[in-house]
Design goal:
Largest sheet: 5 strands, parallel
Radius of gyration: 21 Å
Distance between the termini: 10 Å
Strand content: 15-25%
Strand order of the largest sheet: 2-1-7-8-9
Shape: globular
Structural class: alpha/beta
Number of domains: 2
Number of helices: 16
Order of helices and strands: HEHEHHEHEHEHEHEHHEHEHEEHHHH
CATH class of the largest domain: Alpha Beta
């Protein structure tokens, strides 16, 4: 493998020449793989690789996190919240009136709140059937997890379960890519995108075509091992140098042109597009997934009349990291106030977050 890496490294240096190029990966799994393998250390100095908004926990708006925490605080003995593990430790921004501590879902569980960690949305049914509480599934994720939430809602209806609802903060990737490609966010000026492998399995190649057609940016869908990612970066450099952007699929063993149509059909049966707020990117038109009107009895936002709480400033600069404006060490909290054991922001908490990956693995070593 080392010889292949060296060969690809030489190829990249030859293609890039002295041209300055900036690419962004938009997939949390890519982010972790890039850091864990030390891939950045072997890139030529004129190739800049940024980590974008590919972590669903990281891009979840602080107001949504604060709202879920508020519901628990106000109804400790009546509400159960179920969510994926990474959401547990993301701190709210509102300080507790007694202790002045910004609580996370994990903190509230320690205080007696009924908060459950799940690995699959369908597990919420078993939870609901074995409690008298109202169960809220805090549904986060992109096109990869939204179909599972759609299945959950359909099963809840089929089983006539009355004490289970979903607070959906699901988001879709192509609309965020459009905003990044258009440079409307103040983000770094990008020459191309390393497109997300997991999301692409679901949506296919076609939804990305606008990036090359409308914005003249290079695009490559890639797998997750170091060789695949490095090969994709070489292709991005080649397209950029030749000023010939196109959409390339280097992950054909899992990604086709149309994606998983069954999963996407399920998604669209239960959800409809809506404007959504992304941490760092702000409101992106039609980038969220709202539960359709015919299923609104199972929409926690409607059932509990949830009002979004205005988030407080914590000093975390996760938003700028997601836009590629700064790297994690440039945040004044990184490594001192904000660490893996005492996270301030979502980018440090999540297993796919840029700050957490940087803190764990960023070393100036080659593969």
């Amino acid at each position: 493998m080392e010889s292949k890496i060296n060969l690809l490294k030489s190829k990249l240096t030859e293609i890039a020449d002295d041209n300055e190029m900036t690419f962004m990966e938009v997939c949390g799994t890519h982010t972790v793989s890039i850091f864990k393998t030390g891939l950045r250390a072997i890139l030529p100095p004129n190739i800049r690789l940024l980590s974008g908004p590919g972590c669903p926990v990281c891009v979840t708006d602080q107001k949504d996190i604060d709202s879920i925490i508020s519901i628990l605080r106000n109804s400790l003995d009546k509400v159960t919240v179920a969510t994926y593990g990474d959401m547990m430790r993301v701190p709210g921004s509102i300080t507790d009136s007694n202790s002045r501590i910004r609580s996370s879902l994990a903190d509230l569980r320690c205080d007696g709140a009924d908060v459950r960690v799940i690995t699959s949305a369908i597990q919420c049914i078993d939870i609901a059937e074995n409690t008298n509480n109202q169960v809220i599934f805090f549904g986060v994720g992109f096109e990869t997890t939204a179909p599972a939430t759609a299945i959950l809602i359909k099963e809840v209806i089929k089983k006539n379960i009355k004490n289970l609802s979903v607070y959906s903060v699901h988001k879709t990737i192509p609309q965020a890519l459009r905003m990044l490609a258009s440079n409307k966010t103040g983000a770094a000026n990008l020459d191309g995108f390393l497109l997300p492998g997991n999301v692409s399995v679901l949506i296919g190649e076609r939804p990305y075509q606008f990036i090359t057609n409308e914005y003249n940016k290079a695009c490559v869908i890639a797998g997750f091992d170091a060789l695949s990612i490095l090969a994709a970066i070489i292709e991005l450099a080649r397209q950029t140098k030749l000023k010939s952007p196109e959409l390339k699929n280097f992950y054909k063993e899992a990604v086709n042109s149309i994606g998983n149509q069954y999963a996407m059909k399920l998604l669209h049966e239960v959800f409809e597009p809506c404007d959504s707020v992304w941490r760092g990117l702000g409101t992106i038109e039609n980038s969220g997934l709202r539960i359709r009107k015919e299923f609104q009895d199972y929409d926690a936002e409607k059932r509990f009349s949830i009002e979004k709480i205005e988030a407080q400033d914590t000093g975390c600069e996760c938003g700028k990291v997601l836009l590629g404006i700064i790297t994690p060490p440039e945040c004044k909290l990184f490594g001192s106030v904000c660490t893996l054991t005492t996270p301030v922001g979502a980018c440090m908490v999540s297993g796919e977050g840029t700050c957490g990956a940087w803190f764990r693995w960023n070393r100036n070593i080659a593969l």
